[in-house]
């Protein structure tokens, strides 16, 4: 029980909002997990469907090893089985059955992301206290990060992560001081700063890194096109960026870099819209225009939409409203994007819908 309480406490400190159930009789092979723990990940719907399960297999390894003389070093193992085919399956739901299938056919497309930051410390106590706070801070700002294994020295830490590709390693020191090592550039010296200055330092570094990557990618693409005889035509120009400089005195800046960063930021913003869900419906374009004029915060707009459709369509419009309102609730819990789309698969019309409005 003490171990379970500790796990639950760490989950709270990491900001985990997913429901956690403790089920002592969950396993039919108790001997596999003796002295350890078994976990299952499931869709918490009407039918609780398991999509991943695993745990510690120390006892299983001990039981299955050869029963011969001699001493053996104790082995530890953690593993799980993931139904990735189901997670990656593209939903084919449509029409009115869309709302019913949402309960049992949850399909999620996941993508792999590089971890930008490794949070480490040479003091186990600091790593499990201040280190967790920093990790949570980075996650709150949508920066991918993970906690390092215990290490006694910089050499020990780097040896454990020699094959990994982090942009920065943050070493937490006593009195909330941080040492930040930039891994992607050898010309950047290590930085020492207090914890409260971390985001102020890291944000521009992230932008600069992304701008360099974007510029390099565009240059490589241009060279590849030129080598193939497919250079950029005069008719196809890059996105227009107008730079307006304030009248007050300001530091000098690189105009080319500003243009690149502006184009990258615009591209990232547009790309973020694609994280939003799509509601595929079966209706007319007249109803689509009515939906375009509605807002989840304006109940009167939905009443007007219901009054403008036929009796047969009123119930359908209410179902649309309920589904969008459900997504809005998830957005308010920071579990879903505020961007959504409504697609009419009968006419091919697609409209953008702001769940926060």
From TrEMBL:
Q: What class of enzyme is it?
A: transferase
Report the residue ranges that make up the Histidyl tRNA synthetase-related domain in this protein. 110-355
Q: Which UniProt keywords apply?
A: ATP-binding, Kinase, Nucleotide-binding, Serine/threonine-protein kinase, Transferase
Per the UniProt entry, the Enzyme Commission number(s) are 2.7.11.1
Q: Kindly state one GO CC term assigned in the UniProt record.
A: mitochondrion
Residue ranges constituting the Class II Histidinyl-tRNA synthetase (HisRS)-like catalytic core domain according to the UniProt record:
2-87
Asked whether the keyword Kinase is assigned, the reply is yes
Record's catalysed reaction(s): L-seryl-[protein] + ATP = O-phospho-L-seryl-[protein] + ADP + H(+); L-threonyl-[protein] + ATP = O-phospho-L-threonyl-[protein] + ADP + H(+)
What GO biological process terms are annotated to this protein in UniProt? histidyl-tRNA aminoacylation; mitochondrial translation
One Pfam family from the record: tRNA-synt_His
Matches recorded under InterPro entries: aa-tRNA-synth_II/BPL/LPL, Anticodon-bd_dom_sf, HisRS-like_core, HisRS-related_dom
GO molecular function terms here? Answer: ATP binding; histidine-tRNA ligase activity; identical protein binding; protein serine/threonine kinase activity; RNA binding
- Give the matching PANTHER family: HISTIDINE--TRNA LIGASE, HISTIDYL-TRNA SYNTHETASE
Put simply, this protein is called non-specific serine/threonine protein kinase
Q: Which organism is it from?
A: Claviceps pusilla
């Amino acid at each position: 029980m003490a171990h379970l309480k500790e796990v639950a406490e760490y989950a709270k400190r990491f900001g985990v909002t997913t429901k956690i159930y403790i089920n002592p009789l969950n396993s039919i092979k108790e001997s596999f997990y003796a002295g350890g723990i078994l976990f299952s990940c499931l869709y918490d719907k009407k039918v609780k469907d398991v999509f991943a399960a695993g745990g510690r297999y120390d006892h299983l390894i001990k039981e299955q090893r050869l029963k011969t003389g001699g001493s053996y070093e104790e082995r530890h193992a953690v593993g799980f089985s993931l139904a990735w085919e189901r997670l990656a399956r593209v939903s084919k739901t449509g029409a009115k059955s869309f709302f019913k299938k949402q309960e049992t056919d949850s399909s999620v497309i996941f993508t792999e992301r590089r971890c930008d930051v490794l949070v480490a410390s040479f003091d186990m106590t600091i790593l499990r206290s201040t280190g967790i706070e920093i990790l949570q801070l980075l996650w709150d700002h949508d920066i991918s990060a993970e906690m390092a294994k215990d290490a006694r020295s910089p050499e020990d830490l780097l040896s454990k992560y020699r094959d990994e590709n982090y942009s920065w390693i943050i070493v937490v020191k006593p009195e909330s001081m941080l040492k930040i090592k930039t891994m992607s550039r050898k010309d950047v010296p290590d930085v020492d700063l207090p914890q409260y200055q971390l985001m102020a330092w890291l944000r521009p570094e992230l932008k600069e890194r992304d701008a360099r990557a974007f510029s390099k990618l565009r240059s490589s693409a241009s060279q590849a096109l030129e080598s193939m005889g497919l250079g950029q035509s005069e008719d196809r120009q890059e996105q227009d960026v107008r730079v307006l400089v304030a009248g007050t005195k300001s530091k000098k800046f690189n105009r080319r870099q500003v243009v690149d960063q502006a184009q990258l930021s615009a591209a990232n913003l547009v790309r973020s819209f694609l994280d939003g869900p799509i509601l595929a419906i079966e209706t007319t374009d007249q109803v689509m225009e009515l939906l375009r004029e509605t807002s989840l915060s304006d109940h009167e707009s939905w009443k007007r939409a219901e009054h403008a459709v036929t009796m047969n369509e009123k119930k359908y419009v209410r179902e649309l409203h309920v589904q969008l309102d459900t997504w809005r609730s998830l957005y308010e819990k920071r579990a879903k994007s505020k961007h959504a789309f409504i697609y009419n698969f009968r006419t091919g019309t697609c409209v953008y819908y702001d769940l926060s409005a």
